[in-house]
């Protein structure tokens, strides 16, 4: 690694770490402590706001809320960043008050004329599209902060039949299909549950610490690869239109087995807490899908249809 590349990587490292020692830098970049001291001095001379702290727990710290010198990107890196921003344009709510247009303009103006021209050409033919949701998702920053600090939250949530008040331990947030979701441990039901942020009516940090039962990364991975004894077996027959609808759903696509072009079969496991979500999805497909099991999903669909029929009788 060249010295220039190492200095740029070190600039990114100190921005993320905020507080560190020369030994931390030496271990991270596989250099001597003496070289780490020299490079940190050079960064400071370049304008990076680093200052040293003396004492037993001393080291280096980067000033909060300070601007770092600009970082150069090659063309491929600029393309990756510019178009990654596009995937966020369709979210009404974003953490940290991120202004996508402002950040994109700053990146764009820092590029060479040739790279700007290439981005303009790609921008006209390439987009990362998500449904544009009008509903705002409040409390994004508050949930992120509580997840990091491991603080329980008092929450009022808009449920199907009535608003409910509960205490939850937030694990993290993820975005999907234009919505934001919070994974949290619900202390009332003693289980992990997923909550849509646009349905949270109020939220307050209790200040009480908790120990996470899992991580967001592990939970997302487990959903895709593992089954438990409490999972339910989903068995669904699809016609041609049912196939067309289901292949566009990431949670179903990998579990569709084609019999021939006009029929297919879904065979997969779902968690008990997903019964309502799964039933409502296949209910919307009408006669293009027939759920054969589990009985919990079938009964849910039948009940919804009976209530709808009575509503219009």
UniProtKB/TrEMBL annotation:
Domain WYL residue range list: 140-204
Family matches, as Pfam families: HTH_11, WYL
Gene3D superfamilies: Winged helix-like DNA-binding domain superfamily/Winged helix DNA-binding domain (1.10.10.10)
Every Helix-turn-helix type domain range: 9-61
Listed InterPro entries: CBASS_pafABC_assoc_protein, HTH_11, PafC-like, WH-like_DNA-bd_sf, WH_DNA-bd_sf, WYL_dom
PROSITE patterns: WYL
Name used for this protein in its record: YafY family transcriptional regulator
Organism: Ruoffia tabacinasalis
């Amino acid at each position: 690694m060249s010295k220039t590349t190492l200095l740029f990587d070190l600039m990114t490292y100190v921005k993320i770490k905020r507080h560190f020692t020369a030994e931390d830098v030496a271990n991270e970049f596989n250099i001597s402590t003496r070289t780490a001291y020299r490079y940190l001095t050079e960064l400071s001379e370049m304008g990076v706001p680093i200052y040293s702290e003396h004492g037993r727990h001393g080291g280096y710290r980067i000033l909060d809320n300070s601007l770092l010198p600009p970082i150069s990107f090659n063309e491929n890196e600029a393309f990756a960043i510019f178009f990654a921003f596009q995937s966020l344009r369709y979210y009404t709510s974003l953490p940290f008050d991120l202004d996508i247009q402002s950040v994109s303009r700053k990146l764009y103006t820092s590029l060479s004329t040739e790279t700007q021209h290439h981005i303009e050409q790609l921008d006209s033919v390439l987009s990362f599209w998500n449904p544009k949701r009008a509903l705002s998702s409040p409390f994004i920053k508050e949930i992120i902060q509580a997840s990091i600090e491991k603080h329980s939250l008092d929450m009022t949530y808009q449920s199907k039949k009535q608003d409910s008040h509960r205490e939850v331990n937030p694990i993290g947030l993820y975005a999907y299909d234009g919505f934001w979701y919070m994974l949290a441990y619900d202390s009332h039901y003693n289980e992990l549950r997923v909550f849509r942020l646009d349905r949270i009516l109020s939220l307050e940090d209790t200040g009480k610490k908790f120990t996470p039962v899992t991580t967001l990364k592990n939970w997302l991975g487990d959903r895709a690869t593992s089954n438990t004894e409490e999972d339910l077996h989903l068995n669904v027959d699809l016609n041609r239109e049912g196939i067309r609808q289901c292949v566009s759903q990431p949670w179903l696509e990998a579990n569709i087995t084609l019999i021939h072009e006009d029929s297919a079969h879904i065979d997969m496991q779902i968690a008990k807490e997903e019964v309502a979500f799964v039933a409502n999805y296949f209910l919307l497909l009408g006669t293009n899908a027939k759920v054969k099991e589990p009985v919990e999903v079938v009964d849910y669909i039948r009940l919804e249809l009976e209530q709808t029929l009575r509503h219009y009788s």
